[in-house]
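Section handout, structural biology tutorial.
Before the tutorial, make sure you can parse a SMILES string by hand: atoms, branches in parentheses, ring closures as digits. In the record below the ligand is pyridoxal-5'-phosphate, and the chain has 367 residues. In the tutorial you will relate the predicted structure tokens back to the input. Do not try to memorize them.
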Amino acid sequence: MTPTAYAVINLDAVEHNLMKVHHFAPHAKIMAVIKANAYGHGMLRIAQALKPVDGFAVARVHEGIRLRQAGIQQRIAVLEGFTCEEELDSLIRFNLDAVVHSLGQVDIFEKKQAHEQIAIWIKVDSGMNRLGFKPNEIKVVYQRLLQCPVIKQPFNFMTHLANADDLSDGMTMAQIRLFNDAVADFPGPRSVANSAGIIGWKASLADWVRPGVMLYGVSPFADNTGEELGLKPIMELHSRLIAVKPILKGDTVGYGGTWLCERATMMGVVAIGYGDGYPRYAKSGTPVLVNGQRVPLIGRVSMDMITVDLASQPDAKPGDPVTLWGRGLAVEEIALCADTIPYTLLCGITQRVEIIEGWVSVPPTPV
Ligand SMILES: *Cc1c(COP(=O)(O)O)cnc(C)c1O
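Predicted structure of the complex:
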């Protein structure tokens, strides 16, 4: 018996997507972004599948420690850096690169005795206004950090693009120029591009690129899918029908009775819900594949179940396979139906969903 709700993770597609990064950024080193459990795909699994990359990026110190403890050898940058001396000690002990974005961190560095050294990425805030130093602060910060024996030289420099997913937005070029000017006088590698930069903005391809979502086969842009960009989605989400029954004209379905049956039909109940990470805000009409055919979601998504209109599938029966996203139904399309971005859907897969590694040409039929 296959698990009820399960995600298939196609590791072959990881290599394919990595090749695409090389294709877009042939001269850059690649720092694969595997924060948030590799966008829901399993951090260690994806790190192992990405063996050939030059480095990894995670958000938090504990994510970096887990990678080191699993034997990952490459550079690992911790994007949020550290907030206290204990965290700096962990970064040093596990040989993790620190992103330096605040004067508080510079103070901690200045007090640190050097036994071993740590590599750093000085983060420039070129307009995102989240983490980083303003361009006019860089010179002073640089001079202070030069005096810290615990830090390896040359330093690395990075910034993050706020609007790169909108190819008509002038902010991206402005950010790139601001960053390049801010670091022009200093030696050391630079990194600017996320997935949208890699695909859409040649001027953002510096010494290192930081692909995230494109490695998972998903488009960073709202108006196309990963497949349209030549990427291969890694994750498919499946479940099965657990009930099929007639509903009558005038019946409502689900919590709040938000869907009113206008014409007698068959409905199906699928074992997937927001408790699995299927988006609560998916609207009636969101496509779902039953036996490989599109049918519309009806009514509200509940914790464990969704309901679908089986008018086009008179022979559907309990046990039949259901795909929530995967081949033939892009996660990007589901994100649009739920007023969100595919990142949140991938990251949101919960513990209850069983992970199956590999690729099955036809989703296994439960017996
Ligand atoms: C998450 C993140 C990335 C990757 O972004 P994608 O849009 O997934 O490619 C790159 N850089 C930083 C600083 C990030 O936080």
